[in-house]
Inverse folding.
């Protein structure tokens, strides 16, 4: 019983300690070349709190991971994508 | 019929002066609707070389472009020219160009972007006119253009039209205005992956229709006409770096009077987006 409690407490601690930030998966239209898509990476990485940006051209996916406490609204994401010359169609978010 | 040397020199100035800075994934000799991301800067080194009979010109230019919004960019080109005609040669700063492009329509879908843009450029008259051959034409020239682009993961196509209005210099010489029409196709042999090198092959059909030049209000017989070029080219990009190169091969020429036909023109550039 004691062992289970210790494992549970450790599990809770790791969740709080390492569950940081959010992952945004965006479906972006207009992505046809990697050189042009660089603008998306640049648009996000210059924003404070963005940890990483991955782009899948074939599937029109942009995946942005943020640091703890950093969140975006859907409108903010749309605006960043629009400023780089593309169109965000939809997005999902999940904690990481 | 042999042209006089001053007129030869003036007409020589018209060679290669219809260029417009290269933007990202745009054609090499024609123009496309590409702009730059908001707040982005493009630094490009561009060189072009051309020959028409005894007239040879090579030019290296530094281009700086800034993305004002996601659909509007502006910049300038600082060209350094080396010109040679017969035994005479000159080199130095040529006419500086200021330019802007606005993408007024954009239709995005999965892996595809269709768009259209208008562009405007002004060539200043700062180039030295006292050299032989002259490095500048002594007049302010203006270029307006309209372009459409279809850019997919596998195929590209563009169409554009430009009109160049040439000013009159102090010697009362007015270089003939020019209309440029371009059709371009592009093919990417391998589907692109972000952060990996990407290659696109291009084939352009460039046509230039020149009006007759005027000296003291008199039209010059040996000026103006039509030239068409078939122009293979390549884009090679890796992340925010791009290398582009192409060559214009003349396929049709109907120049008025006695004028040197273009032998070839070549252009290459290195771009860096920051």
């Amino acid at each position: 019983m004691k062992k289970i409690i210790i494992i549970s407490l450790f599990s809770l601690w790791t969740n709080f300690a390492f569950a940081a930030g959010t992952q945004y998966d965006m479906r972006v239209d207009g992505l046809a070349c990697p050189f042009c898509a660089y603008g998306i990476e640049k648009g996000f990485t210059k924003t404070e709190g963005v940890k990483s940006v991955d782009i899948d051209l074939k599937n029109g996916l942009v995946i942005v991971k943020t640091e703890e406490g950093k969140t975006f609204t859907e409108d903010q994401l749309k605006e960043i994508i629009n400023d780089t010359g593309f169109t965000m169609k939809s997005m999902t978010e999940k904690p990481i | 019929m042999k042209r006089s040397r001053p007129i030869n020199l003036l007409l020589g100035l018209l060679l290669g002066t219809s260029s417009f800075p290269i933007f990202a994934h745009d054609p090499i000799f024609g123009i496309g609707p590409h702009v730059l991301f908001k707040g982005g800067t493009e630094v490009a080194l561009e060189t072009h070389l051309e020959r028409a009979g005894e007239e040879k010109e090579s030019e290296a230019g530094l281009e700086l472009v800034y993305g004002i919004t996601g659909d509007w960019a502006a910049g300038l080109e600082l060209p350094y020219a080396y010109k040679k005609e017969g035994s005479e040669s000159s080199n130095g700063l040529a006419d500086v160009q200021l330019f802007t492009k606005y993408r007024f329509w954009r239709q995005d879908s999965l892996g595809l972007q269709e768009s259209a843009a208008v562009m405007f450029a002004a060539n200043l008259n700062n180039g030295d006119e006292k050299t032989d051959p002259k490095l500048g034409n002594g007049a302010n020239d203006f270029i307006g253009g309209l372009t459409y682009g279809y850019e997919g993961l596998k195929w590209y196509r563009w169409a554009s039209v430009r009109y160049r209005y040439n000013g009159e210099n102090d010697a009362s010489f007015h270089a003939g205005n020019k209309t440029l029409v371009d059709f371009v196709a592009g093919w990417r042999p391998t589907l692109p992956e972000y952060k990996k090198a990407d290659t696109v092959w291009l084939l352009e059909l460039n046509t230039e229709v020149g009006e007759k030049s005027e000296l003291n209000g008199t039209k010059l017989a040996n000026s103006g006409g039509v030239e068409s070029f078939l122009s293979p080219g390549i884009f090679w990009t890796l992340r925010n770096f791009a290398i582009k190169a192409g060559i214009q091969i003349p396929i049709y020429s109907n120049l008025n009077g006695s004028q040197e036909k273009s032998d070839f023109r070549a252009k290459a550039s290195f771009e860096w987006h920051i």
